[in-house]
Design a protein that fits this description.
three-stranded parallel β-sheet, elongated, alpha/beta, single chain
Length: 126
């Protein structure tokens, strides 16, 4: 984490490596909560921020159980929370409310190498 060469020396109290690992761990936990839908609505903002800052390279969201209102909210949060340097994104979701949000999320991903979408029951925008 700190790239220390003397492993017998006392570890530093603070280090950029600690911050990087903490961001990654918070982001992975937030991603798991967000992807599974197991979080309170009031925590959504913190989860989105943690995911965005995490540096996670691959995310998958399989949420075919969402009602239209929740699907729209989920898509907005997804747009805000996906790290911009994400390399792989897989999304399986149900409903029409997802097209606009998914296109926004994907449009901001400059490093995206792979995208897989499964949109059940959705009609393309006209």
């Amino acid at each position: 984490i700190t790239d220390a060469t003397d492993l017998s020396a006392a570890p530093p109290k603070t280090h950029a490596g600690y911050d990087r690992v903490n961001r990654t761990l918070r982001g992975r936990f937030a991603y798991l909560c967000f992807a599974s839908g197991r979080f309170a609505r009031e925590d959504e903002g913190r989860l989105v921020e943690a995911m965005r800052e995490s540096g996670i390279a691959e995310m998958a969201f399989f949420r075919e159980d969402l009602a239209a209102e929740d699907a729209a909210r989920f898509t907005i949060a997804l747009c805000l929370g996906v790290p911009q340097d994400l390399r792989r994104l897989n999304i399986a979701i149900r409903g029409d409310a997802m097209w606009h949000g998914i296109s926004q999320a994907v449009g901001q991903l400059s490093e995206l190498e792979e995208l897989a979408l499964w949109l059940r029951g959705a009609r393309p925008p006209r």
